[in-house]
Amino acid sequence: MIRTVVRDSVRDALRDTPRAVAYLLSGVLVGAPLLVVLLVLGTAGLALAPLLVGLPLLAVAVLSGIPVGALERRRLDLTRALTRTPPPPDPHITPAEPGLAAWARLRLTERATWRELAYTLLLGFVLWPLDALVLFGALGMPGALIGAPAQLATTSSTGGDTRIAKLWLIDSYGQALLCTALGVVLLLALLWPLVRYARVRAALARLLLAPSEAETERRLGEVTRSRARLVAAFEAERRRIERDLHDGAQQRLVSLSMTLGLARLDAPPELAELLAAAHREADQVLLELRELIHGIHPQVLADYGLPDALADAADRSAVPVEVAVDLPRFAEPVESAAYFAVREALANIGRHSGAERARIDGRYTDGRLRVEVRDDGTGGADPARGTGLTGLADRLAVLDGTLSVHSPAGGPTVLSLEIPCPQR
């Protein structure tokens, strides 16, 4: 048992050593120039602060933690196999206004900025020298011992003394080979502590750079509000397209149909049949355009609300639908999301279910809109197979709503949606 544990530990250490060395070495390469930059910005900023020229330099020094934090998260992402954990997410939120001034104001008021600055100072003044010391102790000293024969051969040709790591004097190849053997043993013994240190070092970076619970909730709230704004913009664009088609293309087609009808009255016989065919085509295009406009945003939904809109959708369904809905008016996004979810469900019933009848139930209780669509089809519906319900579920999620589908093999299929919302 002990032998197995030791063997596994050695194997893991050998596997993770390149990642640990890369992580620590990159920390040294980042930290050394960072120390110089911090010293220059801090010294110049404090010296020139009475002249107000140094204030921008001090602001740059404070905000320098932001790119350093982003770089550290990137390094943690690249060494995910070493730490076995994902890197911390970006704690910063997107400014509500464009421009450098708005960005700087927001960043200076975020706790994440100051936490990243603290990590930057720690990296520049403490962590990278410690990383360099650990790398030298774990690799430099064993490497010097392993290279003892080569060093002895070099110094023998020049007539100098051979000292290993400036500490031990050797004068024979027997001693040099003994140093090599000692260096190999020391290297293997230090690999596991090296990997452990790299993991602890990465855990410290993750702890300091990870957003707090309040910042995570704030960021999630910002994402939710952003999604809500996108849905609102989508609805506004949908209504604009519906108005443009209704007031533009549809009116032109009506005018064209009337003109063709009038032209048929006085047309010679050889043109009457062609005009009649053109008249029928214009009427068909007009009918299809009206159906398209209705699908973009039905006027009955805007004028009379969700009950009448669901009844209209049931009348248009390819399967007979019974409607039992008693609902008040709600905000436009709520009514629109519920209507299109039900309409998608009815379209799926007509295309895939093989059902003979369907039923829509809707009620409003405890501040929640609940709508259920049920059919007597064969079941087996899977929202993940491109039925269109996945996008509708995302749309409901913006309103804190949920969409679920229960469809066992053999039926029945039941689609349920629930949206917390007030009456309008």
Automatic annotation (TrEMBL):
Concerning Pfam families, the annotation shows:
HisKA_3 (PF07730), Sensor (PF13796)
Regions that span the bilayer: 21-41, 47-71, 117-139, 173-195
Catalytic activity reported: ATP + protein L-histidine = ADP + protein N-phospho-L-histidine
Q: What are the UniProt keywords, alphabetically?
A: ATP-binding, Kinase, Membrane, Nucleotide-binding, Phosphoprotein, Transferase, Transmembrane, Transmembrane helix, Two-component regulatory system
Give the EC number.
Answer: 2.7.13.3
Q: Which domain of life does this protein belong to?
A: Bacteria
Any Gene Ontology CC annotation:
membrane
Q: Name one GO molecular function term.
A: ATP binding
Domain named Signal transduction histidine kinase subgroup 3 dimerisation and phosphoacceptor is located at 237-301
- According to the entry, every stretch annotated as the Putative sensor domain falls at 23-209
Record-given protein name: histidine kinase
Organism of derivation: Streptomyces phaeolivaceus
